[in-house]
């Protein structure tokens, strides 16, 4: 069954050209990357410990800093209200958490990568997609907030 799904995707990708192809592949990578981050963080907000109404947050916003869009050090699970608070009024809470868990040197490295201009090639996008599928599969199973084991 998985082979049929992959061959169907391959046919879709083959029919796309230019920006449509890039957009489709980026969207697929976003889904795979977000699934990896959610499972890595056990569907739990890194700041509040909440498990309901979560999404993936980027320390350096993905549209303003595209070079670290799919950098796993730049993405963590947050409850949506905490995520909103981070963007609207309290960015230091996330920064302080990052420094506590990874260190200020890693923050400096991430900042340097964020400020570096990098445009991903189609090949890099495909490689990252495969990489994050494998990394997600390698993680141990965990339960989501609704009790589903993934």
Q: What letter string, H or E per element, gives the SSE order?
A: HHEEHHHH
Tell me the radius of gyration: 17 Å
Mean pLDDT: 91
Low-confidence stretches: none
What portion of residues belong to β-strands? 5-15%
For the report, how would you describe the main beta sheet?
2 strands, antiparallel
Number of domains: 1
Main features:
150 residues, mainly alpha, two-stranded antiparallel ribbon, 6 helices, 58% helix, 7% strand
General description of the model:
- With about 150 residues, this protein is mainly alpha-helical.
- The chain has one domain.
- The protein is about 60% helix and about 5% strand.
- It has six helices and two strands.
- A two-stranded antiparallel ribbon has the order 1-2.
- The longest helix is centred in the N-terminal third of the chain and has 23 residues.
- The two termini are about 20 Å apart.
């Amino acid at each position: 069954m998985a082979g049929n799904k992959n061959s169907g995707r391959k046919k879709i990708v083959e029919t796309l050209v230019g920006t449509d192809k890039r957009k489709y592949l980026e969207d697929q990578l976003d889904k795979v990357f977000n699934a990896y981050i959610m499972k890595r963080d056990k569907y739990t907000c890194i700041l509040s410990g909440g498990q309901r109404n979560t999404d993936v947050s980027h320390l350096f916003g993905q549209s303003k800093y595209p070079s670290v869009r799919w950098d796993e050090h730049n993405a963590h699970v947050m409850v949506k209200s905490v995520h909103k608070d981070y963007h609207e009024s309290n960015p230091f809470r996330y920064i302080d958490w990052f420094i506590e868990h990874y260190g200020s040197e890693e923050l400096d490295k991430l900042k340097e990568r964020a400020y570096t201009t990098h445009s991903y090639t189609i090949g890099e996008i495909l490689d990252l997609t495969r990489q994050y599928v494998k990394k997600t599969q390698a993680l141990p199973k965990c339960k989501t907030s609704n009790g589903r084991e993934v």
